[in-house]
Each structure stands twice: as structure tokens, then as C-alpha cells.
Amino acid sequence: MEPQFRKMAALCLFIGSLLATLTMLLHPSGGSLAHIAQIKSTLVFSHALAIFCLPFIGFGAWGLSVLLQTPGRIAMLPFFVFCTGLIAAMIAGAVNGLVLPFFVAKYYNAGIDEQVLKAIIGYGRYLNASMDYIFISACAFAIGLWSAMILITARLPQWIAYYGFGCLMVGLVGVLTHFNFISVFGFRVFIFGLVSWLVLVGGLMFWEKE
């Protein structure tokens, strides 16, 4: 793997992780229609930032898969699954952070039955939740397979693979205890766990000796 490509992929993981962290710090909690209309600018900015970070993370994930490549090319499987999750995250961010605030700002207090508006918004929230579940599942699958590939190829230190498996075990405990990963708090927990693994992997890729 070319050193310049490896370092650029690592930098993209750093940049994408930083933007994802800022997104979670800025992400406001939902609320009534009036509250959504009031925080429209914050919703738009935080979710636009989230969408902007996805290509950086995707490029970094591509670099990781190339680094862990084997003759069977199995390392590309977690990359494509991960990209599926990123697409789901883009849809969720667009629905919840772009469509929702503009829709509410336009039609709230416009004389339309509030129950009708709530029903439409409820549909959007179910769509958003389904995309969140796809994103979380795709990331968990990808990290699990990447971690296994790290153990097989020894291209990165083994402890980062065990750290990935540890994150998955914590997530499994959360699922078994009915922890809500798609609430604002729960999604922050998931994103910070994902970001911690990506940053560590990026650091190992960037400072890997030839």
C-alpha cells in the first residue's frame, strides 16, 4: 500500500471523526413543532455537518480495507457494508436535519391541522429510525470483520482488533438490556464509540512504519 494513500486515508478518518464528534455535540434534542421551528438553523447546520463528514469517513474506510486486503479480497466486504451504512446515515441526516426543519418552518402556523402535520412528521421519524438501525448494524458488522482481518493479516497491532470486539460486546449488552441507541443520548454513545475506534485505527495507519 502506498504510504501517501495510507496517510491520506488516515487523515480522512481523523477529519471525518472530528466532524462527526462536532455534529453530536451540536445536535439538539427534538420537541414540539414550535421548538423544531425555533431551532431550525441549529438542526440544519448540525446535520449538514454530519452529511459532509461521511465522504471523509468513507475514503478512510476504503484505505483501511486496502491495507487489510488479502488475495480473496474479503476485506472489501466490510467496506461495501460500511458504505451502505453511510448512505443510510446520509438519508437519516437529510430527513431529520434538512427536510424536517424546513417542512415545519413552512407549514407550522399555516392553518393546517396540527394532527396532520404530526402524522407526516411521525412518518419521517420512523424513516429516520430505520435508517439509524441500518447505519448502526452496518458499522457493527464492518468493525467486526475489519477486526477479524486485522488478526488474520497482522497489518495493524492486534490490540485494536480486540478493542473493536470489545466495542461490539458493549453494544451487544446494550441491545440485550434494551438500551435505546437511536435516542439522542444513545446515538451519541454509539457515535463516540465508533469515532474512538476510527481515530485509533487512523493513528495506527498514519504512523505505521514502512
TrEMBL record:
Record has Transmembrane helix as a keyword: yes
The entry's keywords: Membrane, Transmembrane, Transmembrane helix
Segments passing through the bilayer: 44-67, 79-104, 133-152, 159-179, 185-207
Official protein name in the record: DUF4386 domain-containing protein
Domain of life of the native organism: Bacteria
Species of provenance: Emticicia agri
